[in-house]
Amino acid sequence: MKLATLVYLKRDGKTLMVHRNKKENDMHEGKWNGLGGKFEPGETPEECAIREIREETGLELRNPVLRGFLTFPGFSNDEDWYVFVFTGTEFEGELIDSPEGDLAWIPDSEIADLPLWEGDRYFLKWIEEGRFFSAKFTYRNNKLLDHSVVFHDEITGRNLY
User: Fold this and answer.
1) Is 36 helix (H, G, I), strand (E, B) or coil?
2) What are the beta bridge partners of residue 136?
3) Contact, 53 vs 71, CB < 8 A?
4) CATH no. for residue 123?
């Protein structure tokens, strides 16, 4: 089981994305992704998000906003991945040459045109709609087989199916 974060930094109608094209044997090779990565021992999801943004972009993120939770059963090496999804609008610093791939500020209207994981198109829409979600995406051989989602009402805490 792997615990990870996924962070979408946003400013001026654009989202910071990474084109995964630098690491050998990268399961995300060729895809455009948000930023983030695996937890280190003892980290909270927020601490992981802040550290990963610093390591991958050079930016200092403040106040990441939790937007949802993703489950990917058997995603890589038959391991389940559990991912906390954040957005961030409060950050400062200068972008570095990321070890993960090429960083680019992509206009929000163009993100869906990028080579993304198929499931990303769903939850990126939910983020834009302001919906808090818990979703499961099942992939086999890099193809999306199925997905399900529960939306949560942030005021009442009730599930909205």
Assistant:
1) coil
2) 71, 148
3) no
4) 3.90.79.10
